[in-house]
Amino acid sequence: MTKGIVIREAHFPGRAPIEAYGNGGFRFADMSHRGSLLCLPSGIYGWEPADPLALTAADFAKLLNEADKIEILLVGAGKDLRPLPAALRAALKAVGIAADPMSTGAAVRTYNVLLAENRAVAAALIAVE
């Protein structure tokens, strides 16, 4: 019987500020992650939306399961600001989450400030090169 490498879902079980971003990933809690992130009250997860240019409520299923612990969602949309699709804004509003799209850099900085203030914040961060 051969044992191969077990690939697990990327998950850090806690809240941590983002120390750095760029080169297609992020650094936090003295670790690095290649790809996008979803920072929730339950932890930081590797996140790969189906189409980063057209986010949907399905991309935020894990976040919606924790909606009662989140007031503000920062969406780091990459290098440029992109408005959120109306259907996604409506789905978030329906569960009481205010969504604020911005560039990934601005979202990281704002997330760190709100996290330090112990606010009910979550972030969806699309990796940038």
Automatic annotation (TrEMBL):
It comes from the Bacteria. This is Xcc1710-like domain-containing protein. SUPFAM superfamilies: MTH938-like (SSF64076). InterPro entries: MTH938-like_sf, NDUFAF3/AAMDC.
